[in-house]
Amino acid sequence: xxxxxxxxxxxxxxxxxxxxSVIDSLAAHMEExxxxxxxxxxxxxxxxxxxxxxxxxxxxxxxxAAKEIGLTGIDLLGPNEWPIVKKYGLTCSMAQxxxxxxxxxxxxxxxxxxxxxxxxxxxxKLKEAGLKNVICFSGNRRGMDDQKGxxxxxxxxxxxxxxxxxxxxxxxxxxxxxxVDHKDYMCDKSAWGVxxxxxxxxxxxxxxxxxxxxxxxxxxxxRTIRRDHQYFAHxxxxxxxxxxxxxxxxxxxxxxxxxxxxxxxxxxxxAQEFIPKRDPLTSLRESIAICDV
Length: 293
Prior knowledge:
Elements: H1 6-14, H2 19-37, E1 46-50, H3 59-69, E2 73-77, H4 82-87, E3 91-95, H5 112-129, E4 133-136, H6 146-167, E5 170-174, H7 190-200, E6 205-210, H8 211-217, H9 221-228, E7 232-236, H10 254-263, E8 269-272, H11 280-291
Parallel strand pairs: 1-2, 1-8, 2-3, 4-5, 5-6, 6-7, 7-8
Protein backbone atom coordinates (compact mmCIF):
# COMPACT_ATOMS: atom_id res chain seq x y z
CA UNK A 1 0.00 0.00 0.00
CA UNK A 2 1.35 3.42 -1.03
CA UNK A 3 2.03 5.75 1.88
CA UNK A 4 0.55 9.25 1.39
CA UNK A 5 3.14 11.98 0.91
CA UNK A 6 3.55 14.78 3.42
CA UNK A 7 2.13 17.17 0.80
CA UNK A 8 -1.01 15.10 0.17
CA UNK A 9 -1.57 14.69 3.88
CA UNK A 10 -1.46 18.46 4.35
CA UNK A 11 -3.90 18.89 1.42
CA UNK A 12 -6.32 16.53 3.10
CA UNK A 13 -6.08 18.47 6.32
CA UNK A 14 -6.55 21.79 4.51
CA UNK A 15 -10.29 21.26 4.20
CA UNK A 16 -10.83 20.62 7.85
CA UNK A 17 -11.10 22.73 10.96
CA UNK A 18 -7.69 21.40 12.01
CA UNK A 19 -5.83 23.25 9.26
CA UNK A 20 -4.67 26.26 11.20
CA SER A 21 -3.77 24.35 14.33
CA VAL A 22 -1.66 21.90 12.29
CA ILE A 23 0.13 24.68 10.43
CA ASP A 24 0.76 26.50 13.70
CA SER A 25 2.07 23.29 15.22
CA LEU A 26 4.43 22.70 12.30
CA ALA A 27 5.72 26.26 12.50
CA ALA A 28 6.31 25.90 16.22
CA HIS A 29 8.14 22.63 15.63
CA MET A 30 10.41 24.21 13.02
CA GLU A 31 11.16 27.11 15.34
CA GLU A 32 11.99 24.75 18.19
CA UNK A 33 14.25 22.70 15.90
CA UNK A 34 16.20 25.81 15.02
CA UNK A 35 16.58 26.62 18.69
CA UNK A 36 17.93 23.20 19.57
CA UNK A 37 20.42 23.31 16.69
CA UNK A 38 21.98 26.44 18.22
CA UNK A 39 20.73 26.48 21.81
CA UNK A 40 20.76 29.75 23.71
CA UNK A 41 23.25 29.86 26.57
CA UNK A 42 21.89 29.90 30.11
CA UNK A 43 23.60 33.16 31.06
CA UNK A 44 25.00 31.93 34.37
CA UNK A 45 28.59 32.02 33.11
CA UNK A 46 30.38 34.71 31.11
CA UNK A 47 32.22 32.68 28.48
CA UNK A 48 35.49 33.73 26.88
CA UNK A 49 38.48 32.12 25.18
CA UNK A 50 42.21 32.74 24.93
CA UNK A 51 43.06 33.94 21.44
CA UNK A 52 46.58 32.44 21.40
CA UNK A 53 45.04 28.96 21.18
CA UNK A 54 43.53 29.93 17.81
CA UNK A 55 46.59 31.65 16.36
CA UNK A 56 45.89 30.70 12.73
CA UNK A 57 42.50 32.46 12.77
CA UNK A 58 42.67 36.26 12.24
CA UNK A 59 41.35 38.15 15.25
CA UNK A 60 38.44 39.71 13.33
CA UNK A 61 37.29 36.32 12.08
CA UNK A 62 37.71 34.82 15.52
CA UNK A 63 35.74 37.65 17.13
CA UNK A 64 32.86 37.12 14.67
CA ALA A 65 32.80 33.38 15.36
CA ALA A 66 33.09 33.89 19.13
CA LYS A 67 30.10 36.23 19.09
CA GLU A 68 28.03 33.70 17.12
CA ILE A 69 28.94 30.91 19.55
CA GLY A 70 27.87 33.05 22.51
CA LEU A 71 31.14 34.26 23.99
CA THR A 72 31.17 37.70 25.55
CA GLY A 73 34.94 38.12 25.89
CA ILE A 74 38.35 37.17 24.54
CA ASP A 75 41.39 36.78 26.78
CA LEU A 76 45.00 37.93 26.54
CA LEU A 77 44.82 40.77 24.04
CA GLY A 78 46.97 43.89 23.96
CA PRO A 79 45.84 47.52 23.59
CA ASN A 80 45.92 47.49 19.77
CA GLU A 81 43.55 44.52 19.74
CA TRP A 82 40.94 45.76 22.21
CA PRO A 83 39.05 47.95 19.66
CA ILE A 84 38.78 45.02 17.22
CA VAL A 85 36.82 42.80 19.60
CA LYS A 86 34.77 45.74 20.85
CA LYS A 87 33.58 46.26 17.27
CA TYR A 88 31.92 42.83 17.48
CA GLY A 89 30.26 43.43 20.82
CA LEU A 90 32.92 41.62 22.86
CA THR A 91 35.26 42.72 25.61
CA CYS A 92 38.85 41.81 26.40
CA SER A 93 38.11 39.74 29.50
CA MET A 94 41.79 39.53 30.54
CA ALA A 95 44.12 42.18 29.16
CA GLN A 96 47.83 41.94 28.64
CA UNK A 97 50.40 44.51 27.56
CA UNK A 98 52.35 45.25 30.75
CA UNK A 99 55.14 43.48 32.60
CA UNK A 100 58.01 41.35 31.35
CA UNK A 101 56.33 38.02 30.74
CA UNK A 102 56.02 34.83 32.73
CA UNK A 103 59.64 34.26 33.74
CA UNK A 104 60.45 37.75 35.06
CA UNK A 105 57.98 38.99 37.61
CA UNK A 106 57.32 40.60 40.94
CA UNK A 107 59.39 38.15 42.99
CA UNK A 108 62.55 39.95 41.78
CA UNK A 109 62.96 43.33 43.57
CA UNK A 110 65.40 44.50 40.89
CA UNK A 111 62.52 44.53 38.44
CA UNK A 112 60.04 46.41 40.62
CA UNK A 113 60.69 49.90 39.26
CA UNK A 114 60.33 48.70 35.67
CA UNK A 115 57.23 46.64 36.45
CA UNK A 116 55.55 49.44 38.39
CA UNK A 117 56.14 51.89 35.55
CA UNK A 118 54.81 49.39 33.02
CA UNK A 119 51.55 48.75 34.88
CA UNK A 120 51.03 52.41 35.77
CA UNK A 121 51.25 53.15 32.06
CA UNK A 122 48.58 50.65 31.10
CA UNK A 123 46.06 51.41 33.87
CA UNK A 124 44.69 54.59 32.19
CA LYS A 125 44.38 52.74 28.87
CA LEU A 126 42.40 50.00 30.58
CA LYS A 127 40.08 52.49 32.23
CA GLU A 128 39.52 54.34 28.95
CA ALA A 129 38.69 51.05 27.20
CA GLY A 130 36.33 50.01 30.01
CA LEU A 131 38.43 46.96 30.91
CA LYS A 132 38.81 45.60 34.43
CA ASN A 133 41.47 42.86 34.50
CA VAL A 134 45.15 42.81 33.57
CA ILE A 135 47.42 39.80 33.90
CA CYS A 136 50.65 39.66 35.89
CA PHE A 137 53.16 37.01 36.95
CA SER A 138 55.32 36.05 39.90
CA GLY A 139 58.38 35.15 37.82
CA ASN A 140 60.60 32.09 38.17
CA ARG A 141 62.27 31.05 41.42
CA ARG A 142 65.88 30.89 40.24
CA GLY A 143 66.82 29.39 43.61
CA MET A 144 64.73 31.84 45.65
CA ASP A 145 62.82 30.63 48.71
CA ASP A 146 59.03 30.68 48.17
CA GLN A 147 58.37 32.74 51.30
CA LYS A 148 60.94 35.33 50.30
CA GLY A 149 59.48 35.43 46.82
CA UNK A 150 56.01 36.00 48.24
CA UNK A 151 57.29 38.87 50.37
CA UNK A 152 59.06 40.40 47.38
CA UNK A 153 55.91 40.14 45.27
CA UNK A 154 53.86 41.82 47.98
CA UNK A 155 56.28 44.75 48.22
CA UNK A 156 56.15 45.39 44.48
CA UNK A 157 52.40 44.87 44.10
CA UNK A 158 51.52 47.12 47.04
CA UNK A 159 53.20 49.98 45.19
CA UNK A 160 50.53 49.62 42.49
CA UNK A 161 47.39 49.11 44.52
CA UNK A 162 46.39 52.75 45.00
CA UNK A 163 46.72 53.36 41.27
CA UNK A 164 44.84 50.14 40.44
CA UNK A 165 42.04 51.13 42.81
CA UNK A 166 41.90 54.64 41.31
CA UNK A 167 41.52 53.24 37.78
CA UNK A 168 39.16 50.41 38.74
CA UNK A 169 41.60 47.75 37.57
CA UNK A 170 42.35 44.37 39.14
CA UNK A 171 45.84 42.92 38.73
CA UNK A 172 45.43 39.18 38.32
CA UNK A 173 48.40 36.84 38.86
CA UNK A 174 48.15 33.56 37.04
CA UNK A 175 48.62 30.24 38.79
CA UNK A 176 50.70 28.03 36.45
CA UNK A 177 52.14 24.54 36.78
CA UNK A 178 55.91 24.22 37.17
CA UNK A 179 56.02 20.47 36.43
CA VAL A 180 55.11 20.33 32.75
CA ASP A 181 54.74 23.72 31.07
CA HIS A 182 56.49 26.40 33.10
CA LYS A 183 59.50 24.97 34.86
CA ASP A 184 60.59 26.89 37.96
CA TYR A 185 57.61 29.27 37.99
CA MET A 186 56.95 30.39 41.56
CA CYS A 187 53.18 31.00 41.70
CA ASP A 188 52.41 27.33 41.15
CA LYS A 189 50.19 26.49 44.15
CA SER A 190 46.83 27.98 45.04
CA ALA A 191 47.76 28.21 48.75
CA TRP A 192 50.79 30.34 47.87
CA GLY A 193 48.63 32.59 45.73
CA VAL A 194 45.97 32.96 48.41
CA UNK A 195 48.59 33.94 51.01
CA UNK A 196 49.99 36.53 48.63
CA UNK A 197 46.51 38.00 48.18
CA UNK A 198 46.16 38.29 51.93
CA UNK A 199 49.60 39.88 52.19
CA UNK A 200 48.81 42.49 49.51
CA UNK A 201 45.47 43.16 51.19
CA UNK A 202 43.55 44.76 48.31
CA UNK A 203 40.48 43.68 46.33
CA UNK A 204 42.39 44.93 43.27
CA UNK A 205 44.84 42.04 43.39
CA UNK A 206 43.66 38.46 42.94
CA UNK A 207 44.53 35.15 41.32
CA UNK A 208 43.76 33.66 37.93
CA UNK A 209 42.84 30.10 38.84
CA UNK A 210 43.85 27.96 35.89
CA UNK A 211 42.06 24.63 36.29
CA UNK A 212 44.39 22.74 33.96
CA UNK A 213 47.53 23.97 35.71
CA UNK A 214 46.22 23.37 39.20
CA UNK A 215 45.05 19.87 38.33
CA UNK A 216 48.67 19.08 37.51
CA UNK A 217 50.07 20.68 40.66
CA UNK A 218 47.54 19.80 43.36
CA UNK A 219 44.16 18.53 42.12
CA UNK A 220 41.21 18.91 44.53
CA UNK A 221 39.78 21.52 42.16
CA UNK A 222 36.20 21.82 43.42
CA ARG A 223 37.12 21.93 47.12
CA THR A 224 39.70 24.65 46.38
CA ILE A 225 37.16 26.73 44.43
CA ARG A 226 34.59 26.44 47.20
CA ARG A 227 37.12 27.38 49.89
CA ASP A 228 39.15 30.11 48.19
CA HIS A 229 36.92 31.56 45.48
CA GLN A 230 37.03 35.04 47.00
CA TYR A 231 40.68 35.25 45.92
CA PHE A 232 40.01 34.15 42.33
CA ALA A 233 39.15 36.86 39.80
CA HIS A 234 39.24 34.70 36.67
CA UNK A 235 39.26 31.07 35.53
CA UNK A 236 40.94 29.20 32.67
CA UNK A 237 40.13 25.72 31.39
CA UNK A 238 42.09 22.98 29.62
CA UNK A 239 41.96 19.22 29.35
CA UNK A 240 44.48 17.21 31.34
CA UNK A 241 46.67 15.52 30.31
CA UNK A 242 47.68 17.31 27.13
CA UNK A 243 45.94 20.69 27.45
CA UNK A 244 43.58 19.79 24.63
CA UNK A 245 39.78 19.64 24.36
CA UNK A 246 37.84 19.40 27.64
CA UNK A 247 35.94 16.36 26.42
CA UNK A 248 35.69 12.77 27.67
CA UNK A 249 39.27 12.07 26.58
CA UNK A 250 40.71 13.77 29.67
CA UNK A 251 40.33 13.47 33.42
CA UNK A 252 38.55 16.66 34.51
CA UNK A 253 34.74 16.71 34.70
CA UNK A 254 34.01 20.28 33.74
CA UNK A 255 30.21 20.38 34.28
CA UNK A 256 30.72 19.76 38.01
CA UNK A 257 33.59 22.26 38.17
CA UNK A 258 31.50 24.92 36.43
CA UNK A 259 28.59 24.25 38.77
CA UNK A 260 30.91 24.76 41.74
CA UNK A 261 32.02 28.10 40.27
CA UNK A 262 28.42 29.20 39.68
CA UNK A 263 27.45 28.17 43.22
CA UNK A 264 30.02 30.60 44.67
CA UNK A 265 28.13 33.51 43.10
CA UNK A 266 30.99 34.25 40.71
CA UNK A 267 30.14 36.88 38.06
CA UNK A 268 33.44 37.05 36.17
CA UNK A 269 34.68 35.16 33.11
CA UNK A 270 35.58 31.55 32.44
CA ALA A 271 37.99 31.41 29.50
CA GLN A 272 38.69 28.32 27.41
CA GLU A 273 42.44 27.82 27.16
CA PHE A 274 42.91 24.48 25.46
CA ILE A 275 44.86 23.75 22.28
CA PRO A 276 42.40 22.22 19.78
CA LYS A 277 43.37 18.95 18.12
CA ARG A 278 40.26 18.95 15.93
CA ASP A 279 38.47 21.73 14.04
CA PRO A 280 39.12 24.65 16.41
CA LEU A 281 35.77 26.42 16.25
CA THR A 282 33.82 23.16 16.53
CA SER A 283 35.87 22.28 19.61
CA LEU A 284 35.28 25.75 21.05
CA ARG A 285 31.54 25.47 20.52
CA GLU A 286 31.52 22.05 22.19
CA SER A 287 33.51 23.36 25.15
CA ILE A 288 31.05 26.18 25.71
CA ALA A 289 28.18 23.67 25.65
CA ILE A 290 30.00 21.53 28.25
CA CYS A 291 30.66 24.50 30.53
CA ASP A 292 27.29 26.24 30.22
CA VAL A 293 25.66 24.84 33.34
